[in-house]
Write a structure and sequence with these properties.
The N and C termini lie far apart (73 Å). 28% of the residues lie in helices and 24% in strands. A 7-stranded mixed sheet has the order 3-7-1-14-11-12-13. Strands 9-17-16-15-10 form a 5-stranded mixed sheet. Strands 20-28-29-30 form a 4-stranded mixed sheet, sandwiched between helices. It contains 19 helices and 30 strands. A hairpin with a 5-residue loop joins strand 21 and strand 22. With 790 residues, it is α+β, with helices and mostly antiparallel strands.
């Protein structure tokens, strides 16, 4: 690393600077370029016929004259398979267009093309499909029952995978002073990014490639999947993501729609565009978040956590999705449920249930939101049983900083952190003693609204790599992240990375890393990302990995480039290269300075002035990066919330909300704020509003935003953020992945606060979202219990 400090008086621009995002200029001026903005000559619009029933055999299908296609027409095109190497995993194949059976409402059955979307939809109305309807499997808790119809032929039961872990459990919990068992559940949600999914496929006759312009988070992975499904070499597929209007995991999978569009464009030699409408998004775009927990906590009389026993089920939907597979969430539950707590014993059994619902997708905070909710609520329940303040129980069991790095009971390697300090700061900021005084006054006055306070603390494993994923045996295993850097003839810098931004500010933060390493003004840095023809291979943007992995790769590449720049500059300055420093666009030695533009001009335009031993690779190179170990960085946060509950209506009003988070060294604190605040808003939606219910026939019960409530400015309080900065010893700058963190903590903190407000009445909630009806039901059940007891 070199001296990237700006000249005296210049604004900070390197790692740690609150640099305004470069992306915002074009977005705020309406100059972003999304799939829906792109039109190609002769382009046809694509509309799909989707199954109206959740489970049925396709008896017959008839298509009208025109550009209408059924599954049997897609010659040479195979379905999507995403298997796992985990023992006992059951395989499924997701058809591109279903031919024999449909397994969820909205599954693709036919594709229709026309010059306009309206005409394509008119053609789709003429497709006739005869279905023999079958009973739908909707309840994940009963999916494996022997009397349930099987979704996939050859399976013994509707389960993709079961996992079990037992680490000294029985011995650890002997003599527990408090044993509390609870049942918790979370609702299925729809991600609803501002821009829905969409793609344009066309055949490039000159290159002989299918070019897929698609709103995706992982272009190189999509390229691999498209080539496999079409049965062609990957060299014949190019994937280009334009601006991507939000993803959250929703755009982190291979879509049957993408495969179909690519096949149609290759076959017809016409550009084909599909743009998802909101009804499609609601009917087929539900992600998971649908968990069910039977969890028991065991503690000693002083609050020491002895062990946790959990039986968890995740609704994985109808198919294993590419590339993460159907074990995406349930297999992680067993390993991440303990979170940042020390315990002596642990037992967990998980099941990935197959149901007649859309396949699960990797929503922001994959699995962690659910396990945080279950674990943090059981901590509060143990505290109530022991008559202790919940924050005191947490403090007693959190991993202390002096034990870092720490390997927890499920072998998770915590790189750094001070979890007790985060808890202390959050409890102090929310002013717990004052809230307890307010509650006492409310009880004495018989107030119609009651105040509650809740806390949640969690860790987020981000940027985990080969050592974590190879054991899963899924189609994707991350390895070395690469970055290509090129000093341009005028002294600017081009950076090419395979990750794809969908809101992470990569064009800004990666430019800041360039400045940190070799002192080039971020405004002179051009970041190219995603395009498979222009960028190094990458598994993409997921798992809070970009800042650590792509940031580390850019830093490593700039370090190597800096060595080459110093060699040329040293020759020009008649100085030893190792005495030359790079800062603020200049190479400086004891005898003077030379601009990086002059160094570049020498390489490109005046090679006669180069040193004889100059590196023949020039001022362009690609470098790979992978931390060692690559088990991931562990960011963490503590959320604390004060709210009120109206006892007459069940309405919940959020008041003060505090987040104490630790992202290690922040490359751009303003970007971290944005990630945390945006995630927290989504977490509030999970806690209080968002739910995609299905009826007994597997029909989704929300089809518009009139049915599905996203939180807005009115529902999200003014959130206070307190940054901690314990550096990770594993990453290049000490940074940790933070992109998903904000969405993990709110459901647990809010649920604990609601239950805290209801505790004097003997009432509690146990399912998400916590709606007014659920609050009133909890109060009613508590009153009924008291009446029976009386």
């Amino acid at each position: 690393m070199t001296d990237g400090t700006p000249a005296s008086g210049a604004p900070a621009r390197g790692v740690g600077a609150r640099l305004t995002r470069f992306e915002d200029d074009r977005y705020l001026r309406g100059r972003g370029r999304f799939v829906g903005d792109i039109k190609l000559p002769g382009m046809l619009e694509l509309a799909f016929v989707r199954a109206p029933v959740a489970h049925a055999r396709v008896v017959a299908a008839r298509k009208p004259e025109g550009l209408a296609f059924l599954g049997g027409d897609l010659t040479g095109c195979s379905g999507i398979r995403a298997d796992s190497g985990l023992k006992g995993f059951r395989s499924s194949i997701q058809p591109i267009l279903a031919t024999d059976k449909v397994r969820h409402v909205g599954e693709l059955v036919a594709a229709c093309l026309a010059p306009t979307r309206a005409e394509a939809e008119d053609l789709a109305e003429l497709v006739e499909v005869d279905y023999e309807e079958l009973p739908a499997v909707v309840d994940m808790r009963r999916a494996a029952d022997p009397d349930m119809p099987l979704l996939h032929d050859g399976w013994e039961e509707n389960t993709f995978l079961e996992t079990s872990v037992d680490i000294g459990f029985e011995e650890a919990v002997k003599g527990a002073a408090a044993v509390v068992t609870r049942t918790y559940s979370t609702a299925r949600q729809c991600m609803s990014p501002m821009e829905g999914r969409g793609c344009i496929a066309h055949y490039d006759e000159m290159s002989g490639q299918i070019v897929l312009t698609t709103s995706t988070q992982m272009p190189h992975i999509v390229r691999t999947g498209i080539a496999e499904c079409l049965g062609i070499d990957q060299a014949r597929v190019r994937v280009i993501p334009p601006d991507v209007g939000g993803g959250f995991g929703y755009k982190g999978v291979l879509l049957a729609e993408e495969v179909c569009a690519a096949w149609l464009a290759m076959t017809l030699r016409r550009p084909v565009r599909w743009l998802e409408d909101r009804r499609e998004q609601f009917s087929v775009g539900a992600n998971c978040r649908e968990h069910h927990y039977e969890i028991t906590g065991y503690a000693a009389a002083d609050g020491t956590l002895l062990g946790v026993d959990c039986d968890a089920i995740v609704d994985s939907g109808a198919y294993s999705i590419y590339p993460f597979s159907a074990c995406l969430e349930a297999a992680q539950v067993a390993s991440i449920l303990p979170g940042p707590y020390r315990m002596k014993g642990y037992r967990c059994h998980t099941k990935s249930a197959a149901t007649n619902k859309p396949p699960i997708l990797p929503f922001r905070g994959v699995a962690r939101t659910g396990v945080c909710y279950a674990m943090e609520l059981i901590i509060d329940a143990l505290a109530e049983e022991l008559g202790m303040e919940p924050s005191a129980v947490r403090a007693k069991n959190l991993v202390p900083p002096e034990e870092m790095p720490f390997t927890n009971i499920t072998n998770k390697y915590f790189d750094s952190g001070d979890y007790p300090e985060a808890l202390r700061r959050a409890v102090a900021a929310i002013d717990l003693p004052a809230i307890r005084e307010t509650q006492a006054a409310e009880r004495a006055a018989g107030a119609p609204t009651r105040t509650g306070v809740g806390v949640s603390i969690f860790c987020e494993q981000g940027a985990h790599g080969t050592s974590v994923y190879h054991g899963w045996g899924i189609p994707m295993v991350p390895g070395y992240e690469q970055a290509m850097v090129r000093l341009t003839p005028d002294g600017g810098l081009e950076v090419r990375v395979g990750v794809q931004s969908h809101g992470q500010s990569l064009e800004t933060t990666l430019a800041q890393i360039v400045f940190e390493e070799i002192g080039i003004d971020p405004a002179l840095v051009k970041v190219v990302h995603g395009d498979t023809a222009l960028t190094p291979y990458s598994t993409g943007t997921w798992g809070s990995r970009c800042a650590v992995m792509a940031g580390g790769a850019v830093g490593a590449a700039c370090e190597k480039l800096g060595e080459r720049i110093r060699a040329i500059a040293g020759h020009l300055l008649q100085a030893e290269p190792d005495t030359v420093t790079l800062a603020d666009g200049y190479a400086r030695g004891s005898s003077g300075e030379v601009s990086l533009a002059e160094v570049a001009r020498t390489w490109y335009l005046a090679p006669q002035n180069l040193p004889a031993d100059v590196d023949r690779g020039g001022l362009e190179l690609t470098e790979g990066y992978r931390p060692a170990p690559d088990t991931g960085t562990f960011s963490y946060a503590c959320h604390a919330v004060r709210l009120t509950v109206d006892l007459d209506t069940g309405a919940i009003a959020l008041g003060d909300y505090v987040i104490v988070e630790d992202a290690g060294r922040m490359i751009n604190p303003m970007v971290v704020d944005g990630q945390v605040l945006g995630g927290a808003a989504q977490g509030i939606g999970t806690a209080l509003y968002e739910e995609m219910p299905f009826d007994a026939d597997g029909q989704p019960m929300a089809a518009t935003f009139a049915d599905y409530h996203l939180p807005g400015a009115v529902e999200v309080p003014a959130i206070r953020i307190d940054h901690m900065e314990t550096l990770s010893p594993l990453s290049r700058f000490g940074q940790k992945g933070i992109g998903e963190s904000g969405a993990i903590g709110p459901p647990a903190a809010i649920a604990n606060a609601v239950n805290d407000a209801l505790r004097p009445f003997g009432a509690r909630t146990a399912s998400l979202p916590i709606t007014p009806d659920k609050v009133l039901d909890a109060l009613g059940h508590a009153a009924a219990r008291k009446d029976v007891a009386a």
